[in-house]
Amino acid sequence: MILLSLFWEFLKIGLFTFGGAYGAIPLIHQAVLSQGWMTEEMFANILAVSESTPGPIMVNSATYIGASQAGVLGAAVATLGVVLPSFVIILLISVLFAKAIQHPTVRSVLKGVKPCVMGVILATSIALVLEIITGLPGAFSLDFLSAILLFLLVFASVLYRKWKKKELSPILLILLAAILGIILYS
Hints:
Layout: H1 2-16, H2 21-35, H3 40-52, H4 57-100, H5 104-134, H6 144-164, H7 170-185
């Protein structure tokens, strides 16, 4: 039964995610909590690990959540569920792409979906930052170390941009966050 639940939940996530992996985070979050597979804190940790390991966040999250619930088979089933819709859609689009992209309705839909995806990503980012700094939802304690870490990372990004006139590499930012995490939390 757990394998069917994993497949079904991640199939829905794969079907209804627009805008890439960051657009999937709210859907994965809702599925994980509603199924009781993880706590808020565990999900935040999985999100951090999924972001910092090679591969798409959505696939990494599905694989880890599946493995935590039903071992290797659970990882395979959850990953298949999240990847299958994209695979089928891309297969169909590759056949119809040349004609479809020229259609005004398709262009209008894509233009309309972009701001929605940006809003979902922004809302999720703000919610996660507030949750990490203040603790679990509804709690009013302030984690000063998380706030300091966030401030240092933002400061380093801004300083690097002013100094080098380009964005700080996400890889360097992740490494810096890991080093600062070790220093602040040890």
